[in-house]
């Protein structure tokens, strides 16, 4: 559904010529490459390991990575504008810690849930404002946000806090069953809804087109009269919201709040977005690609678990190699497009 | 007086003095330095000794940032160099042989040089954004380090190796001497030769400097090699100090602290100018902050909050837009009255 629309051109040269008919296709190459990789990885898994072909194996990839998917969707918006958000992992930690602390203190979940979502959103809003109004580099502003969120959650509680609240437990245990032993959790449903909304927003709303335009060239976007400042702040706010929603899903998933949750998660989210074919310089990419990127990361872990004799550190090495391959692919594609 | 305040090292020095003075309030003998067993002892010596790795990493980071780049992989490189050194020393038949330990140290540093070349190749030859290019090694590097150590914490017992991080020469800590030598070398190379000027010109505009006849590509590769080499030495100091290689703890978050140190020292992230003295001061400030937190009795993690505030204030102070918005009005009035 997203593939049918072509985002505004990213490159500086937009003058028309007959050969540009091929251009929409070069834009899809990274996403198609990710899809091909995913299919190859899955086939290798099914061919090599018993029980890999179970539907539930694929569904478990979703169940285990739902929070990452939500965070990566927020990151996609930020990277599409050419920025970066390092604070997402820390915001997850803050969200789970605050939620667990307040629930333990007897606050009603109906108050806690909106409150923690608001905290993440406000942090995102703050970072976006600093980036836009004071022209501070996104890297540094979100680094400060990361220190702030992580520091706050450590200040609240340095230990892991269990969540025993009724509502939270019910949400955590809610399952949507399709068949005997084939199910997804509530987290997956929420994550997929987020992906769907994000894809629609990017493809068909004015805000979505502005995001692409700013990533393509912020100066031209400004000259065209697009609300660059508003969009940029909105993108970081959205990422903050997605991070705190990811934090809520994470607290469903682990039933605990801990100030060290989500360490290094920002790297996973960035890696998923890049592997999903979003151009790091901004202006090109799809939420669907990010979904594929998260699935690739999840499938790597699944294969390594199935292999059994490989240790978890291979995950990092393989992710690094894939990152390298996709970044080089991006370079080749953008070079050709010019 | 105004000249003194205007000096770009004034604020870093002021912060350091305030930090040290506040230590005096909480611990009486903070400034006492005693001579025990021919070693200098005291909190101040401790500050010097413990800031050595960060000073080294910040030095390399300063050069990279001067060319407008950034190196996120320094923490991973630290972990790799410590891991390789500990692995090789563990295999030695006689771990107390000085020449063999020196060979091992050399091998570890050579490996780091290779990683530096890799980063430089990605940035200068393939033209990938520095944040992303070094992100690859940051993600994969810890995996490589764990691969070297087999996922375990390697403990070594080698008296020559221990000298690097915990030894004393002429009653001064060896790690401090190494850091001081590195600072002296860098200052000599950048301020006594044309190298510093070339670095700043590449940071100002790579294209313009290439057109002016500067081999921008070669200089860019060189700064990443420098950064990796310094990170490697820092990794050796760290692992020697604790007599083990811990792939997860070594250099954890040091890239962010190093960037913070560089920014604290007044080097702008946009590149084009740098201050080595400032970065060294910044690194000492951060270490002092951690030590102060311990002596005051607050959890070390709360320094993250302080760092967040410092980063935000510094970035706002460096942002021309912010100064224009906040101080512009006063400045205008002053010119009117004068």
Give the SSE map.
The complex is a heterodimer of chains A (338) and B (338).
Chain A: H1 23-48, H2 55-80, H3 88-104, H4 109-134, H5 138-156, E1 161-162, H6 166-173, E2 175-179, E3 182-185, H7 186-204, H8 206-216, H9 218-223, H10 228-254, E4 256-257, H11 265-275, H12 287-307, H13 313-337
Helix pairs in contact in A: 1-12, 1-13, 2-7, 2-10, 2-11, 2-12, 3-4, 3-5, 3-10, 4-5, 4-10, 6-10, 7-8, 8-10, 11-12, 12-13
Chain B: H1 2-6, H2 10-26, E1 34-36, E2 39-41, H3 43-66, H4 74-91, H5 98-125, H6 130-149, E3 154-155, H7 159-166, E4 168-169, E5 172-173, H8 174-191, H9 195-204, H10 206-211, H11 216-242, E6 244-245, H12 254-264, H13 276-296, H14 303-318, H15 320-337
Antiparallel strand pairs in B: 1-2, 3-6, 4-5
Helix pairs in contact in B: 2-13, 3-8, 3-11, 3-12, 3-13, 4-5, 4-6, 4-11, 5-6, 5-11, 7-11, 12-13
Membrane topology (chain A): Multi-pass membrane protein
Transmembrane segments (chain A): 29-49, 61-80, 86-105, 112-134, 140-161, 182-204, 233-253, 259-280, 313-333
Pfam families (chain A): BPD_transp_2
């Amino acid at each position: 559904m997203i593939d049918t629309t072509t985002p505004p051109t990213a490159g500086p040269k937009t003058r028309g010529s007959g050969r540009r008919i091929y251009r929409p296709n070069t834009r899809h190459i990274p996403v198609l490459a990710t899809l091909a990789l995913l299919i190859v990885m899955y086939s290798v898994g099914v061919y090599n390991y018993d029980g890999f072909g179970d539907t539930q194996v694929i569904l478990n990839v979703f169940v285990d990575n739902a929070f990452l998917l939500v965070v990566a969707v927020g990151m996609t918006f930020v990277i599409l504008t050419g920025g970066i958000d390092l604070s997402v992992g820390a915001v997850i930690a803050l969200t789970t810690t605050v939620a667990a602390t307040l629930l333990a203190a007897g606050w009603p979940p109906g108050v806690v849930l909106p409150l923690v979502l608001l905290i993440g959103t406000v942090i995102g809003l703050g970072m976006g404002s600093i980036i836009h109004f004071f022209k501070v580099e996104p890297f540094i502003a979100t680094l400060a946000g990361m220190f702030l969120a992580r520091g706050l959650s450590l200040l609240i509680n340095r230990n892991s806090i269990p969540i025993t609240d009724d509502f939270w437990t019910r949400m955590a245990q809610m399952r949507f069953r399709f068949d005997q032993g084939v199910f997804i959790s509530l987290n997956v449903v929420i994550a997929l809804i987020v992906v769907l909304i994000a894809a629609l927003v990017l493809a068909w709303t004015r805000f979505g087109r502005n995001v692409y335009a700013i990533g393509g060239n912020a100066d031209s976007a400004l000259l065209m009269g697009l609300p660059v400042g508003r969009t940029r702040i909105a993108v970081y706010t959205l990422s903050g919201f997605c991070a705190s929603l990811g934090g809520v899903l994470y607290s469903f998933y682990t039933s605990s709040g801990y100030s060290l949750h989500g360490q290094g998660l920002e790297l996973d989210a960035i890696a998923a977005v890049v592997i999903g074919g979003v151009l790091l310089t901004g202006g090109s990419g799809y939420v669907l690609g990010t979904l594929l990127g998260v699935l690739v990361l999840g499938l790597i872990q699944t294969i390594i678990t199935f292999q059994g004799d490989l240790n978890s550190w291979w995950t990092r090495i393989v992710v690094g190699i894939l990152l390298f391959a996709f970044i080089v692919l991006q370079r080749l594609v953008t070079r050709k497009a010019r | 007086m105004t000249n003194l305040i205007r000096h770009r090292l004034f604020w870093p020095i002021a912060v350091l003095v305030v930090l040290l003075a506040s230590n005096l309030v909480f611990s009486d003998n903070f400034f006492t330095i005693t001579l025990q067993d021919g070693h200098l002892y005291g909190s101040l010596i401790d500050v010097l000794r413990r800031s050595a790795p960060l000073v080294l990493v910040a030095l390399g980071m300063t050069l990279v940032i001067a060319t407008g780049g950034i190196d996120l992989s320094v923490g991973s490189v630290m972990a790799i160099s410590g891991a390789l050194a500990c692995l090789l020393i563990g295999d030695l038949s006689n771990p107390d042989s000085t020449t063999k330990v020196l060979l091992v140290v050399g091998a570890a540093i050579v490996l780091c040089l290779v990683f530096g070349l890799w980063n430089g190749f990605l940035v200068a030859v393939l033209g990938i954004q520095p944040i992303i290019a070094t992100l690859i090694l940051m993600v994969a590097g810890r995996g490589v380090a764990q691969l070297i150590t087999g996922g375990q914490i390697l403990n070594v017992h080698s008296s020559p190796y221990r000298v690097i991080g915990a030894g004393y020469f002429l009653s001064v800590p060896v790690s401090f001497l190494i850091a001081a030598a590195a600072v002296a070398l860098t200052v000599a190379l950048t301020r006594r030769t044309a190298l510093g000027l070339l670095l700043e010109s590449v940071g100002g505009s790579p294209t313009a400097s290439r057109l002016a006849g500067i081999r921008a590509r070669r200089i860019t590769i060189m700064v990443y090699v420098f950064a990796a080499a310094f990170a490697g030495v820092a990794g050796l100091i760290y692992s020697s100090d604790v007599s083990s290689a811990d792939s997860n703890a070594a250099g954890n978050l040091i890239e962010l602290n190093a960037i913070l140190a560089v920014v604290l020292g007044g080097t702008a992230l946009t590149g084009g100018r740098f201050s080595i003295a400032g970065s060294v001061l910044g690194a000492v400030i951060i270490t002092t902050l951690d030590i102060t937190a311990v002596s005051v009795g607050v959890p070390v993690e709360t320094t993250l909050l302080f760092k967040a505030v410092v980063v935000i204030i510094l970035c706002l102070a460096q942002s021309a837009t912010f100064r224009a918005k906040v101080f512009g009005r006063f400045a205008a009035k002053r010119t009117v009255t004068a």
